[in-house]
Amino acid sequence: MPIRKVMKGNEAAAWAAKLAKPKVVAAFPITPSTLVPEKISEFVADGEMDAEFIKVESEHSAISACVGASAAGVRVFTATASQGLALMHEILFIAAGMRLPIVMAIGNRSLSAPINIWNDWQDTISERDTGWLQFYAENNQEALDLVLAAFKVAEDERVLLPAMVGFDAFILTHTVEPVEIPDQEVVDEFLGEYVPKHAYLDPERPITQGALGFPAHYMEARYTVWEAMENAREVIKEVFAEFEKKFGRKYHIIEEYRTDDAEIILVTMGSLAGTVKEFVDKKREEDVRIGAAKITVYRPFPIEEIRALAKKTKILAILEKDISFGSGGAVYADVGRALINEKERPVVLDFIIGLGGRDVTFENLEEVVDIAEKALGEGVEEEIHWIGLRKEIL
Amino acid sequence: MAVRKPPITTREYWAPGHAACAGCGPAIVMKLATKAFSEAMEEKYGNPDAFAIAHATGCMEVVSAVFPYTAWKAPWVHVAFENAAAAASGVDAAWKKLGRKGKILAIGGDGGTADIGMQALSGMLERWHNVVYLMYDNEAYMNTGIQRSSSTPYGAWTTTSPPGKYSIGEDKPKKWVALIAAAHLVPYVATANIGNPYDFVRKMKKAAKVDGPAFVQVLAPCVPGWRTPPEKTVEIARLAIETGVWPLFEIENGDFHNIKIQSPGGGAKVKREGGKVVAIEFKKPIEEYLKLQGRFKHLFKKPEAIQVMKDQIKAMWKVLGVEVTLP
Amino acid sequence: MAESPFKMEIERVEKEYSEKMTPGAVVYIPGSSVVNKTGSWRVFMPEFSRDKCVRCYLCYIYCPEPAIYLDEENYPVFDYDYCKGCGICANECPTKAIVMVRETK
């Protein structure tokens, strides 16, 4: 029988790692993710986890050791955040290009400068082009579940790509919530053993991994990564369906909330979805036709799902904790890309919100709705809005 | 006539058809290092193939593995420039969990080791991985077209240390990574040189057989980078030993008080006390080493620079506990 | 004279060779570089006099390709498909059993 425990998001991720039975974990401490390697160290020390835990000297070496171990053909897990993920940047491309299904838990945190340890999504968003699958958890249960699902998707032969699972710094990493820990036997059944056919370092079958790709081959190599990411769309649906069968919890690539007759849909990710759903309930009581949508899978970007969502509404308001300077929010750009050739499409507005741990309040969300309603009536004046800015100190 | 057996295994892990320059010193390193590893694994585990290679970006990586071809006949992985030691750590951990007996060989050039890969190397050694790190030292960034590294010796021309009105060429003494590696107190550290292939193979085998981490720094001349004729590669490497430029030594468990020094040959007089080498009187002047190389050509107009070089060589030997005299 | 071991290697490689892109651009045929005949780079070629050879193996040890293999009697054999003509073997040969001569093609 699955047991319920009250735990922090970091512990939930560590529990997921324990259940997935990786043979190698390489990780480096960084706020707010440090508890993940700490907890894994405890599991290993107590003999509850049969993994080699490499206490590396940097995140760069953490991911490099993960690539080495995964290239040697074993299941691999790591965790990091923020500057640590940024330090891994170079090797993230390599892990994907070499088609190594490493799974990484991220306590989503802002990037310097100024240095700031609190939540936004700039770290993982900045890695969106690396070829890693990206999942965002709303709560600690999702953090655990999505790590397990990520392994299953990543290791699928049609995919073979690394995956990151983000959960918000402090809001989830350090906050305790009840979490259901699935049975080990069921997880074993769900994941199976990882026995790669494409990547191993076996003296009986010597192969060369990480060769140079000349212009005559490079594009094809990159295209296979594109293809794998496209394949992942279907695989994720299958894995989510099997996950529901095995564990009873249902996941969606995009989870919709009270969207049926909505004129405004607030689109967001991660723990912010919880706040937004509550806000939607409040506004519904006031007879505002509003709904919410949570993007659980950000890479591959849910293009079809966004198109379906767009058909239901007049305004898509993107609420995101990241910014691409000189352009706007990254999610906004992706949503725009999904809708650009649609004959009829709603107005899409972008709201940069909650950077570096700034609280997102109902007051902020009221402002979002005001701007959206105004756009509905008077047309769009500005597309990108920074919400909750303290204009008085600027 | 009784024919003695070939002094090294005829098994090959480094196939021809690779794209290294004619007369490439590091290519000789690749060939001999893998043969030595194979012999060591056969002697230790009864399986000559019981090793895998993690390779840093660099000349030897680029010339050996170009999709869909590879010169390697051993399991081989390349990740990036600065992280061969970290990648090797991961392979080592995976092999442990797979219950596979054998040793991991990490290979990097001097740029990938002394500079950008220094941190990963230190981490790997300190964590006591079952890895031999082989640094093939051609004393500059050759893959990008001959830029100075911290392993470039004083006086050398490179594209980023050009001699000029206000420049002697490279103006810093060479950084000796072997000494830094030894400071990790790891079981085995050695310097080697393709000019003495038997010594190199012996050291590689010893490194491969120890339990835990080892580090070998081998001098391997680069034809375009040193501006030398291809046929002189081995001769120049040997002259580095015979003139005192390149000390051959072994440090076990970081025991700096008992450094083993190999005799340089070339007519040098070696003085021992209590079995330890305490002084060497070299007979071949370093000019003999320098004059064969275009990268040092400009120094012959500045004899004071050659004197600086000699002082640096003496200082290096002093660290090893050896008083040397240079002609 | 013994058949070059590399000839057998070429046969093995050509049997399996494929340019088809693999996941991760992994190269599955070990030593497949043997099909690249780098002998075409050569300007000078080593000429070997068996009668002068003392079988010291230095040429065999040093050849960076390797383009030198040993025959049944452990004499070196030069595989000109791969020899780039660097001349290390001739330079190091203690008995001058190897000399470099200009290639005539």
- Which strand order does the major sheet of chain A show? 3-2-4-5-7-6-13
How many separate domains make up the residues of chain B?
Answer: 1
Largest interface: A-B, 47 and 47 residues
The oligomeric state of the chains shown is: heterotrimer
Q: pLDDT average of chain A, as an integer? A: 98
How are helices and strands ordered from N to C of chain B? HEHEEEHEHHEEEHEHEHHEEEEHHE
Terminal Cα separation of chain B, in Å?
42 Å
The largest sheet of chain B is: 8 strands, mixed
Overall number of structural domains of chain A: 2
Strand fraction of chain A: 15-25%
CATH topology of the largest domain in chain A: Rossmann fold
The CATH topology of chain B: Rossmann fold
Low-confidence stretches of chain B: none
Give your account of this protein's structure.
The complex is a heterotrimer of chains A (394), B (327) and C (105). With 394 residues, chain A is α/β, with parallel strands linked by helices. Chain A has 2 domains: 3-247, Thiamin diphosphate (ThDP)-binding fold, Pyr/PP domains (Rossmann fold, 3-Layer(aba) Sandwich), CATH 3.40.50; 254-393, Rossmann fold (3-Layer(aba) Sandwich), CATH 3.40.50.920. Chain A is built from 12 helices and 16 strands. A 7-stranded mixed β-sheet of chain A has the order 3-2-4-5-7-6-13, with helices on both faces. A 6-stranded mixed β-sheet of chain A has the order 10-12-11-14-15-16, sandwiched between helices. In chain A, strands 1-8 form a two-stranded antiparallel sheet. In chain B, helix 1 crosses helix 7 (197-209) and helix 3 (84-98) packs parallel to helix 5 (118-126). Chain B has helices spanning 25-45, 59-64, 84-98, 110-115, 118-126, 177-182, 197-209, 223-226, 233-242, 286-290, 303-319; strands at 51-55, 65-66, 69-70, 76-78, 103-109, 131-137, 163-164, 167-168, 188-193, 214-219, 249-252, 260-261, 269-273, 276-281, 323-325. Helix content of chain B is 34%, strand content 19%. In chain B, the strands form 4 sheets. An 8-stranded mixed β-sheet of chain B has the order 4-1-5-6-10-9-11-12, with helices on both faces. Chain B has a 3-stranded mixed β-sheet with strand order 13-14-15, with helices on one face. With 327 residues, chain B is an alpha/beta fold. Chain C contains 3 helices and 4 strands. Chain C has a domain at 37-102: Alpha-Beta Plaits. The longest helix of chain C is centred in the first third of the chain and has 12 residues, at 5-16. Chain C is elongated and about 50 Å long. The chains are: A alpha/beta (394), B alpha/beta (327), C alpha+beta (105). The interface between A and B is large, with 47 and 47 residues.
